[in-house]
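Entry 12.
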Amino acid sequence: MSSQPIERERKGSAAPLGTSPSRPREGRPDRFNMLVNALLGLIGLEFLTGIGVNLEVTSFPSSLGVLFGPSAASYSPLLLAHAALGIILGILALVTVVLASRLQDRVLLLGSVSGLGSVLLAAIAGAGFLGSGGVATYSFVMAVGFLGAFWSYFRVRVRLSALEGT
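Predicted 3D structure (tokens):
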């Protein structure tokens, strides 16, 4: 097996996918790489704030919409930060899927879709957690969703390293 980076020619482009990040091309793997790294960090932060919510928060709103309404100040700042991070993660996960599709690499796209699905699973469980007043089963499903997202984006990061030859 060669130690050369994995390269694949893109349709209509003279630059292979695994070349230098400073070379301009559609999809910009260097920006995608930064986004994946940011997602991995935010997933870790989201997981830690979720642990804090489980340990410290005793009063839960009936829905996610209440968290961002006029009565938001009556709830824990940790819970508000956790919910806001979840929304940001959802948006970034969607952007990751779009960018991965532009890079035309199946592993990057499947990992990004899997990560988005895992973030959505965690979000749905989070809504159930709020609606139920803090039932532990929903908390467990949220944790599984975030672990799945972390694994998915870690796999994407490994693939990016292989493409870059680093």
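Annotation: The two ends are 16 Å apart (CA to CA). Residues 1-16, 18-26 have pLDDT under 50 and may be disordered.
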